[in-house]
Amino acid sequence: MSTPVKVAVTGAAGQIGYSLLFRIASGSLLGPDTPVELRLLEITPALKALEGVVMELDDCAFPLLSAVEIGDDPNAVFDGVNIALLVGARPRTKGMERGDLLEANGAIFKPQGRALNDHAADDVKVLITGNPANTNALIAMSNAPDIPNERFNALTRLDHNRAKAQLAAKLGTSVNAVTQMTIWGNHSATQYPDVFNALVDGENAADAIGDQGWIESTFLPVVQKRGAAIIEARGASSAASAANATVDHMRDWVLGTPEGDWVSMAVPSDGSYGAPEGIITSYPCTTAAGSYEIVQGLELNDFSRAKIDASNAELVEERQAVTALGLI
Ligand SMILES: NC(=O)C1=CN([C@@H]2O[C@H](COP(=O)(O)OP(=O)(O)OC[C@H]3O[C@@H](n4cnc5c(N)ncnc54)[C@H](O)[C@@H]3O)[C@@H](O)[C@H]2O)C=CC1
Ligand SMILES: O=C([O-])CC(=O)C(=O)O
């Protein structure tokens, strides 16, 4: 067996943590041949609950789980970590938009960015799930000048998976038939799920749907507002599906995407497709050998262009807000 990979998870005693840790320890993240060491960060009052979760991890007797360490000091917990999954943040409740969490949650990511900068392994990859995910990732990245920017991603894979599921249901096919789906922009209600560049059984998805009205009035709002619909139904924000998407994103980043397909990842903009540089925005990406590339050369019609520009404009506003708060 190889040396254990050190995986940090913040907010480990929370809802998402309760699904995520067991998936990581069972081998879903890095495969059946890679042992993992978990480094779990929580705020001090949640450490007792976290001890209970660790007891449950012990009771699973996972063959791949080599060690678990917990703590409330990011400088200690992030020491030598190769992967950091930053989940810990307050979730929104009914009636809130994710951006309403900027001030409260943004403050968490500045010290965590610094701690990663000072203590993580040289190869660290950082994925931000805690909302508002794109701008929290920008805060963490901006406070970690020694870590290359492209090692900071934010999660839009849940939106990507939701879009695939809605499309497959509409066309009465399997999710496996849906490829080349893209979420553009912010993980917020302005995100743009793009069916014009997606394929269903190899055919253009928009052509297969053949109904612009359904795309605009049903598909887009259902995907954009799915998080709110889950809060309405469950009384709490999505957790198991968010943990699943977090695993999907990091697994693909480390292990690679399949030939002929891509995934949605919020990554630092390099100006591709006219996105302003210096924001973290969702793009179609392929990955290989632990690195991602933004898929180039896709055609965007005027409808798509306007939606993507609006979502990126929202990210610029969020960046201005956190700049004014002194977080970046
Ligand atoms: N990007 C996405 O697709 C999704 C993002 N989310 C977001 O993920 C975040 C976590 O959601 P849940 O697990 O449901 O929330 P939760 O409230 O159940 O758990 C959050 C945990 O984070 C901990 N925490 C707070 N401050 C911390 C800090 N400074 N360091 C370490 N831990 C800290 C809390 O003590 C709590 O245990 C929320 O911001 C939520 O909105 C949720 C679903 C999807
Ligand atoms: O909607 C929320 O607040 C939680 C979340 O990000 C999602 O489910 O997409």
Automatic annotation (TrEMBL):
Binding site for substrate: R92, R98, N131, R162
Residues that hold NAD(+) according to the record: G11, A12, A13, G14, Q15, I16, G17, N105, Q112, T129, G130, N131
Lactate/malate dehydrogenase C-terminal domain mapped to chain residues: 156-322
Lactate/malate dehydrogenase N-terminal domain boundaries: 5-150
Catalyzed reaction equations: (S)-malate + NAD(+) = oxaloacetate + NADH + H(+)
Keywords: NAD, Oxidoreductase, Tricarboxylic acid cycle
Active site: H187 (proton acceptor)
Highest taxon listed in the record's lineage: Bacteria
Alphabetized PANTHER family for the sequence: MALATE DEHYDROGENASE
NCBIfam families linked: MalateDH-SF1, PRK05442.1
Similarity annotation: Belongs to the LDH/MDH superfamily. MDH type 2 family.
Protein name stated in the entry: Malate dehydrogenase
Organism of provenance: Microlunatus ginsengisoli
Gene: mdh
